Amino acid sequence: MAERISVMVPWLGAEESDALAEVVASGWVAQGPRVAEFEARFAEAMQAPFAVATSSCTTALQLALIVTGIGEGDDVVVPSLSFIATTNAVRYVGANPVFADVDPASGNMTGRTLAAAMTPATRAVIAVDQGGMPLDLDDIRAVADARSTVVIEDAACGAGSTYKGRPVGAGAEITAWSFHPRKVLTTGEGGMLTTRREDWAERARRLREHSMSISAADRHATVLAPAEEYTEVGFNFRMTDLQAAVGLVQLARLPEIVARRRAVAARYQAAIAPIAGLRAVADPAHGTSNFQSFWVEVGPEYPVDRDGLLVALAEADISARRGIMAAHRQPPYRALAPEEGLPATERLHDGTLILPVYHQLTDEDQDRVIAVLRSPGGDRR
User: Fold this and answer.
1) Residues 174 and 68: beta-carbon distance below 8 Å
2) Are strands 96-100 and 191-195 parallel, antiparallel or unpaired?
3) SS (H, E, C) 303-327
4) How far out from the chain centre does Cα 109 lie?
């Protein structure tokens, strides 16, 4: 029998194991020198002046909202078409999420959909590079800047994607990143906040460590540690040196990882193009995707609907996933759904699925997936 094909498998190997062993042998496994090195190298790779490692992208988003001054009573525009953490982070700081629709081609918020969702109380927008698809930041900024609204870029899926020839997030004032195992670059769990403002970075560093005036690394570096002060209510949002050691190896591999994923995506696109009723996601004119998620829209001309195709893939022992979730359909946020609906969001939520893409996916594995796409009814010769 053919082996099961997973939707995603992290590319981890001996280099990551060796890096972990070095950290264990050093005796310093909490936030320390490896985290500092990972921050410096990630900032350089993403063309950001400052980087702050965190326990997850969700906590990075929460810190981004706090350091930009967002809190009780503020409205924050978010795309409903995003993992629920994007919306949850707004609630964590006491602000109100307001849902915007997306462009059906890219799955991303646009200046037009942002403008339609803004309220008199809007003070921030979280714009998402959904599935690694680069958003048009200049389009978003043109609307937000006119209203003195801060733009937080949620690049959870974006490491290795580009916008106008630069890494996504490079042009943003503040950006949050994820290193979850489903992401292109993984540390198991973990996140990063990058920013152009030193004051935001310094405050985020304090907040992630209970707002201590002196970092744990600095305290442990001396025999007689100076007394610390807790300057405000903070959090435990730290990354460990174990995670950062893996991240450093992964970061060095990032160009190779992205190149392989783009090759897999190109092969899917070529195979899907002649299939009536299927539309594959593709690069926008303003950038390139890392294809963290390769999604396909199933139209009415196709022999089965989206769920029928998921069943056909599962019967062939191929793991696919429903497309990006719509947060406004989840119980905590149903009351916030706009009366006019979010037609593009709902169309993509109901009609898309995510196909397997990972570094180790072979041509033979991909051919099995393509065979089901061509003939979901079962004749796959």
Assistant:
1) yes
2) unpaired
3) CCCHHHHHHHHHHCCECCEECCCEH
4) 14
Which H helix or E strand runs over 20?
A: helix 14-26
Residue 210: Cβ-neighbour burial (10 angstroms; 0-12, 13-18, 19+): middle
Task: Indicate the average pLDDT of the chain.
Answer: 95
Q: Domain containing 201 — which CATH number?
A: 3.40.640.10
Pair 207, 287 in one domain: no
Task: Residue 271: give the domain boundaries.
Answer: 254-374
pLDDT of residue 214: 73
Amino acid at residue number 132: G
> For residues 338 and 76, is the Cβ–Cβ distance under 8 A?
no
- Kindly give the parts of the chain with pLDDT less than 70: 1-2, 216-227, 379-381
Active-site residue (options: 34, 123, 183, 359): 183
Q: How many domains does the chain have?
A: 2
164 is catalytic: no
Residue 162, beta-bridge partner list: 167, 288
Tokens of 137: 């930041």
pLDDT at 377: 83
